[in-house]
TrEMBL record:
The keyword Hydrolase applies. This is Phosphoinositide phospholipase C. Residues 444-572 form the C2 domain. Pfam families: C2, EF-hand_like, PI-PLC-X, PI-PLC-Y. Residues 360-446 form the PI-PLC Y-box domain. Its EC number is 3.1.4.11. The gene is PLC2. One of its GO terms (cellular component) is plasma membrane. It is found in: Cell membrane. It is an enzyme of class 3 (hydrolase).
Length: 590
């Protein structure tokens, strides 16, 4: 970009021109390069290998690995008609291109699935969607199979479908009941799941059904599921499992989870009177570019009088069953039985020695339960599955802090996949781990019998993060996108999401009028529970007159961060990777 100029019109007769400097290696990178190079100014294959071992902490790096990097950078230069004598090694420009290129990401692309996948399902965090069929808000958006397809392509492994009779009571539709959402046919959703279930991951897909059907339609649903999935369907019979099978044993299988059938209660028509107008006041909102998520230690007002909590009774009804209303062929399909049963929280969390099940709690129920029943919840989740779902007044499809579930061993922390913002970015970050397969092994302390206490913990390690610079906005955005009259004024925010003791966000200085900001700032993050820590990175453009503009974000599991100097790609609000925008950062564990 050397020598390029950008022009901004200030008025009809006056323009401002800004010359753009080329991206230049930070001083720290230059110093490291010259430390490892010979007098001729080129880094040889052996010197690059030493750098990879000593700075990048790639202990198993070979001469072949180093040569492959040099060849890759050389090929890139040749394609751009830039001369590089690759037989002699890398010059400073080539070294900088390698560090800031696609071949140097913060997570190891060769790692793939590396967690032990032979433990029971209850030993994993599972990538879980809520109301997976909705395209927008919870009250009036269109139901479709497209969000389901998108979720599966991202690696989501738990799809939720609310199934209801159609208007003529002779077929089954998927919709958010008692709202104005437009339905989609169940068979369409099932066929899309079959086609796209294992595009991103071979590990099992769980379909959680919220069932509002008559026995006749339950039988029809069973027929549709059986015909659609055939041999892909995991069906252990009508009895509850004594232990969940492993993800490895269930590869490319579809699992059905719901409460066993009960009498169909015809839904009364509910008029959504002032609810839609109140949703902005009652719902827990997030700014579209990522307002801080509410701490789960704060008390909530979710049960205000007059609020329509559509899902507050998702599994609150008594689990007594009337055999004459059951469709046996439907019941036989249920592999993971769900339900709360009679009694209160202590009964719900009861661990049975010869039976495993799934329990669903709203975010509010979990927030209240962790005050008194922390150890009971952790013990329950060591054998059983706990699903957490957003409170019903999140009409705008916003989300809650997923860490409250993960901290207490909840496997299925369900978020609205269309609720873009900080909470969903944390979900994306968590499930970048383990090769993005949708299953992440829980930390050992959540799987053992001892008490889990997060207060007064000692620091296990400190993550040192250096934010060198960023580039790519000039290519991915129009030159007046951030400011009509000058280049953007970028700053970065870096921090940790995790247990309360580790949570923090820090900010670089703002650099004015610069498409290639060079911050060169260092931050230290002491971590008490690094196993649950996620590194948050955001870039914003400072605006003196309005809200600061969003300029990219990413979230990365600390447990899988590669040490050394890395090129960190940034993503849009929706989690889609920008073509060019990235930061140059360094990660060290001290």
């Amino acid at each position: 970009m050397s020598g390029k100029q950008t022009t901004y019109r200030v008025c009809f007769c006056f323009q401002r021109r800004f010359r753009m400097a080329a991206a230049e290696a930070p001083d720290d990178v230059k110093a490291i390069f010259f430390k490892y190079t010979a007098a001729n100014g080129f880094m040889s294959v052996e010197q690059l290998r030493r750098f990879m071992v000593e700075v990048q902490k790639e202990e198993n790096a070979t001469l072949e690995d180093a040569q492959a990097l040099i060849d890759g950078v050389s090929l890139l230069h040749e394609l751009k008609h830039i001369t590089l004598f690759h037989r002699r090694g890398l010059n400073l420009e080539g070294f900088f291109k390698y560090l800031f290129g696609d071949a140097n990401p913060p997570l190891n692309p060769k790692l793939k699935v590396h967690h032990d996948m032979n433990a029971p399902l209850s030993h994993y965090f599972i990538y879980t969607g809520h109301n997976s069929y909705l395209t927008g808000n919870q009250l009036s958006s269109v139901c479709s199979d497209i969000p389901i397809i998108n979720a599966l392509h991202r690696g989501v492994r738990v799809i939720e479908l609310d199934i209801w009779p159609n208007s003529t009571k002779d077929n089954v539709e998927v919709l958010h009941g008692r709202t104005l959402t437009t339905p989609v046919k169940l068979i369409r959703c099932l066929r899309s799941i079959k086609e796209h279930a294992f595009v991103a991951s071979e590990y099992p897909v769980v379909i959680t059904l919220e069932d509002h059907l008559t026995p006749h339609l339950q039988a029809k649903t069973a027929e549709m599921i059986t015909k659609t999935f055939g041999g892909m369907l995991y069906s252990p019979g009508s009895e509850c499992l004594s232990e969940f099978p492993s993800p490895e044993s269930l590869k490319r299988m579809i699992i059905i989870s719901t409460k066993p059938p009960k009498e169909y209660l015809q839904a009364k028509d509910v008029k959504i009177q002032e609810t839609t107008s109140k949703k902005g006041k009652d719902a827990s909102k997030q700014e579209p570019w990522g307002k801080e998520i509410q701490s789960f230690r704060t008390k909530t007002n979710a049960n205000k009088v007059g609020c329509l909590d559509i899902e507050s009774n998702e599994e609150d009804e008594e689990d007594f069953k009337l055999d004459q209303y059951e469709a046996p062929e439907y019941r036989r399909l249920i592999a993971i039985h769900a339900g709360k049963g009679r009694g209160g929280m202590q009964d719900w969390l009861r661990v049975e020695p010869n039976k495993v099940r799934r329990l669903s709690l709203s975010e509010q129920e979990l927030e209240r339960a962790v005050v008194t029943y922390t150890q009971d919840i952790v013990r329950f989740t060591q054998r059983n599955l706990l699903r957490v779902y957003p409170k019903g007044i999140r009409f705008d499809s916003s989300n809650y802090n997923p860490l409250i579930g993960w901290m207490h061993g909840a496997q299925m922390v369900a978020l609205n996949m269309q609720g873009y913002g900080t909470a969903l970015w944390l979900m994306h970050g968590m499930f970048r781990a383990n090769g993005g397969c949708g299953y992440v092994k829980k930390p050992e302390f959540l799987l053992k019998g001892g008490d889990v206490i997060y207060d007064s913990l000692l620091v296990k390690m400190t993550l040192k993060v250096t934010v060198y610079m960023g580039e790519g906005w000039f290519y991915d955005f129009h030159h007046t996108y951030f400011d009509n009259y000058s280049p953007p004024d970028f700053y970065a925010r870096v921090g940790i999401a995790g247990v309360p003791a580790d949570v923090v966000m820090k900010k670089t200085k703002t650099l004015d009028d610069n498409w290639i900001p060079n911050w060169d700032e260092v931050f230290l993050f002491p971590l008490t529970v690094p196993e649950l820590a996620l590194l948050r990175v955001e870039v914003h453009e400072h605006d003196t007159s309005e809200k600061d503009d969003f300029a990219g974000q990413t979230c990365l599991p600390v447990s899988e961060l590669r040490q050394g100097i890395r090129a960190v790609p940034l993503h849009t609000r929706k989690g889609e990777r920008y073509k060019s925008v990235r930061l140059l950062m360094r990660f060290e564990f001290i």
